[in-house]
TrEMBL record:
Coiled coil: 221-297
Lineage, top ranks: Bacteria, Bacillati, Bacillota, Bacilli, Lactobacillales
Identification of the protein by name: Uncharacterized protein
The organism's place on the tree of life at top rank: Bacteria
Organism of provenance: Enterococcus alcedinis
InterPro entries in alphabetical order: P-loop_NTPase
Length: 457
C-alpha cells in the first residue's frame, strides 16, 4: 500500500487489518497522519452512552435517541476536534470517504435545566439540543433515508473502479443532493438520485459513498475480509491514479524540435508574450523606482537624526538652495540662497520642540558670525510628534514658551510638514517659487503657511 489509511467508527473496527488503522471517533488518534480516511457516520453515536431509565432502557426524546449527560459534553468536544481535522485534512490535499447514516440527528444534554413545581413536587427537566452528524462535513448535504440495492454508476470517471471491486456487495441506505458542485459517481438506477459523489475541496477530495461493509451480506468472515482488502487496495490505487495528471507530464529536451498540430504557432505566441512581459517588467521597475523616489520625501514627517537631515538637505537642494560645507559637530546645515546665508538646526522629536533647540540654533549662528563675519538667516526645522499619524498631531510643534526666545533672535520656526508643503507647492507651481521662498526666508517666529497638511497631502 502506497498510502496510509485510517477507518473511523467502521463496522469491522473489532477486527485487525494490516492495511488500515481502525480508530474510534472519540480517540485522540489524529486523522492528519493519514492520506486516506474512511468515516462511517452511522457508527459515531454508538460510541457514546445513551440516556437510560431506571430499568436500563434507552429513553427517546421526540422519537430520537439522546446521549447521557456526561457523554453529551464528551461528544461535543470530540465533534469539534474531528471537524477541524477534516478541514485540515482536505486542505492538505488528502482524501476523505464518508458513509451516510440512516438517522443523522439525535439529542444531547445542553447543560441547562428547567424547574417546575415547588417543594416535594419540584421537578427538574434537562434541556436538550438536537445535533446532526452531517454538520461535521465542510459541505451541505440534503439527505433522504431510503434503502435499496438497484444502482448504476458513471463509466467515464476514474472513480468508477470504486463500484467494480471484486466480490463487493453494494447497497445504499440514503440518497442526497447538494448545492456544492461535485462529480457524480453512482445513483439509484433509472433516477438522478445520487448515492455517491466526489466533491473537490481545497486540494483534497470528499467522497460520499454508500454503505458497503455489513458482514451479514457475506457468506463467511474470510470472504468479508477479502472484500475489505480488495476495497482498500482499490482506493489506494485510485489515490495514486488521481495524483498523476497528464497536466504534469514532462518531455525530453530533444522532443522540442518536432512540432505537432498548432504547436509552432503557440510557441511563437508565447515568445511574443514573453517579450511583452519583459517590456512590462522594465516599465514596472521604472514605475517602482519613480514611486520610491516620490515616497522618500515622507521621511520628512516620519524620521529623525541623520536620515531626517539627509531628506531635508535634498528638499532644500530641489528648491534651489546651495549646500555649504560645515565642520564636524557644527550646524546641521548651512545653505545659501540668492546670496543669503542660512544656518539650520534640524530635529526629529517625539513631542514638541523646546527652547533648547532654539538655543542650539543660536549657538550655530554665533559661530557662523565669528567665522564669516556675516549674520545668517537662522531656521529651526522640527519634525514634532514624529511617531504619531499626522491626523493625530493636534498640539503645536512650537510651544509658546520658546517662541518669544526665538523671535527675539529673529529665528524662523518651521515644521518639516510645512517645509514639505513648500516643496510640493513649488513643484506643482514653479512660477510661484520666488514668492513662496521669499516669504519663508523673511519669516521671524513661527512660519504661518501650510499649517493644514490636508491641503497638500
Amino acid at each position: 500500500m502506497k498510502n496510509k489509511i485510517a477507518g473511523v467508527s467502521l463496522n469491522f473496527s473489532h477486527m485487525n487489518f494490516k492495511n488500515i488503522d481502525l480508530i474510534s471517533f472519540d480517540s485522540y488518534n489524529s486523522l492528519l497522519d493519514y492520506d486516506i480516511v474512511i468515516i462511517d457516520l452511522t457508527g459515531i453515536s454508538s460510541e457514546y452512552d445513551y440516556d437510560k431509565d431506571y430499568n436500563g432502557r434507552e429513553r427517546l426524546y421526540s422519537g430520537k435517541k439522546r446521549l447521557s449527560n456526561d457523554d453529551s459534553f464528551k461528544f461535543l468536544s470530540d465533534f469539534k476536534r474531528r471537524k477541524e481535522e477534516i478541514k485540515y485534512l482536505l486542505a492538505l490535499g488528502k482524501t476523505l470517504y464518508i458513509m451516510l447514516p440512516v438517522e443523522s440527528s439525535f439529542y444531547i444534554y445542553s447543560g441547562k435545566n428547567e424547574y417546575s413545581g415547588t417543594g416535594k413536587n419540584r421537578q427538574k427537566t434537562h434541556l436538550v439540543n438536537e445535533v446532526n452528524v452531517l454538520d461535521i462535513l465542510p459541505i451541505k448535504l440534503n439527505v433522504t433515508t431510503g434503502f435499496g440495492s438497484k444502482w448504476a454508476h458513471s463509466t467515464d470517471s476514474p472513480y468508477r473502479i470504486l463500484f467494480e471491486v471484486k466480490g463487493m456487495e453494494y447497497y445504499y441506505n440514503a440518497y442526497f443532493s447538494s448545492e456544492d458542485k461535485g462529480i457524480p459517481v453512482a445513483y439509484i438506477a433509472n433516477t438522478e438520485k445520487n448515492i455517491s459523489k466526489v466533491f473537490p475541496i481545497n486540494d483534497g477530495r470528499l467522497v460520499v459513498f454508500p454503505s458497503i461493509f455489513d458482514e451479514e451480506y457475506y457468506s463467511s468472515e474470510k470472504e468479508y475480509r477479502k472484500v475489505i482488502n480488495n476495497f482498500l487496495h482499490t482506493i489506494d490505487d485510485l489515490e495514486e491514479e488521481i495524483k498523476v495528471s497528464l497536466d504534469d507530464y514532462s518531455l525530453p529536451e530533444w522532443a522540442d524540435k518536432y512540432n505537432i498540430l498548432t504547436e509552432k504557432n503557440e510557441k511563437e505566441k508565447i515568445e511574443e508574450l514573453n517579450k511583452e512581459i519583459e517590456k512590462l517588467k522594465i516599465e514596472k521597475e521604472k514605475a517602482e523606482d519613480k514611486l520610491s523616489s516620490i515616497q522618500k520625501y515622507k521621511l520628512a514627517f516620519t524620521t529623525s537624526g541623520k536620515e531626517l537631515e539627509t531628506i531635508i538637505y535634498e528638499i532644500f537642494s530641489e528648491l534651489g538652495f546651495k549646500s555649504m560645507p560645515i565642520e564636524h559637530n557644527r550646524a546641521d546645515g548651512i545653505f545659501e540662497y540668492n546670496d543669503l546665508k542660512i544656518v539650520t538646526e534640524i530635529k526629529g522629536v517625539n513631542g514638541s520642540s523646546a527652547e533648547k533647540h532654539g538655543a542650539q540654533l543660536e549657538k550655530w549662528v554665533s559661530e557662523f558670525v565669528e567665522k564669516e563675519g556675516i549674520i545668517p538667516k537662522a531656521i529651526l526645522i522640527v519634525n514634532g510628534f514624529r511617531k504619531k499619524d499626522l491626523s493625530s498631531r493636534n498640539e503645536a510643534v512650537f510651544p509658546n514658551q520658546m517662541i518669544e526666545y526665538s523671535t527675539k533672535r529673529e529665528h524662523c520656526l518651521i515644521s518639516t510638514v510645512q517645509l514639505l508643503g513648500i516643496f510640493i507647492d513649488v513643484k506643482n507651481n514653479p512660477s510661484k517659487k520666488e514668492e513662496i521662498i521669499t516669504t519663508f526666508l523673511n519669516t521671524v517666529g513661527v512660519y504661518s503657511e501650510y499649517m493644514n497638511f490636508k491641503k497638500f497631502l
